[in-house]
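Model it.
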Amino acid sequence: MQEKPLLYDPLFETPPDTVIRDTPERGFFGKAVVKKTVFILVLSLFVGVSIWMSFSSLTKDRFRFAETEEGWRLEEFNAGKTDAVLVIDRVCSEDGSVVSDDPVSAVREYALCGNEYTSYILIGKDVKTVSNTAFYSCTSLQAVLVDPENPYYCSDAGVLYRQEDGKKVELILCPQKNYLYRAMLTLGEEPPADAEEAGALAKRCEALKEKSDKWMESRQGDKDPEERGSLTAAEVSALADALSYAVAPGVMRIGEMAFSENKALFSVTIPEGVVEFASMSFFKCSELRSLLLPDSAGTIGSDAFSYCAKLPEIYIPANVETIGHHAFFGCDGAEQVEMACAEENAPDCGQNWLPQRRKFFMKNVPVVYNAERRGD
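Modeled.
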């Protein structure tokens, strides 16, 4: 029986014409030599830009300042492995030496974003403005310390606050490794007075972290803490206490990204008087298990508590008027959201603000209205 011929045989396929030829109907730009020239120029430009961008990323200045109408502003700081301490006080050169008597008065947004080496930031008395996002994702940061003579900012156990008339009004940043600094204070350490003392304390904090890594992993994994190893009983107690934080009385606002991605934050106490939780204020606090919004709360920003997956309950006080998009998205530990208000008085809510739970498919958790705060 004769086999049927193949409808398509790649062995006999005519290869595509890859030669650049003249296209007479396109005039001058249809000439092969012109098309080749344009192609080479575009390719050369692309390669040149790629090389320039790669070179620029490898040769960033360590410090970058800009002079503004308000004074000198720290635009960017690119830390190296030896930059455990950063002093923001005067304009300095690449080696850190002061080059101007004019003070630094501001720190730009994202100026230290992604810094993985700096443990301590010392802010001088003349700094008037620090962007809420200036120190975002500084993964090794233990404390921000402010000169006591600074009238605009202050530090409380390494946590940065904005102040007015000597009173704390806004929490700017609780550093990701602040629990180590607070534990050391509990163990009797004194706050460092200068950069040298801060550098020495950073090393002692790092030693405590290495000793406590397994203990911390047990706590984060919801397991009974393992043998404390070389940790003393006093160190275990200090570390356990440092996993909780109480916001200072009088604060009215929790700033953008203030606690963002803090994986050593298990419990936060929020005082009455806090009106606003800004966007991403508790974003990805993956170990947060206890936080009660005060009755004074009025605004919950976008992504304020998103991906706080271990929060067991969410209670929205009656005064809340606005809830931003994705405010509680990813809070998978909550089975429902309880609102103090009636349904007809529900806040203005953004897209996907609710947590979702998987049954047959992802579905928003239910909202219970006219709820009473548990424990009251």
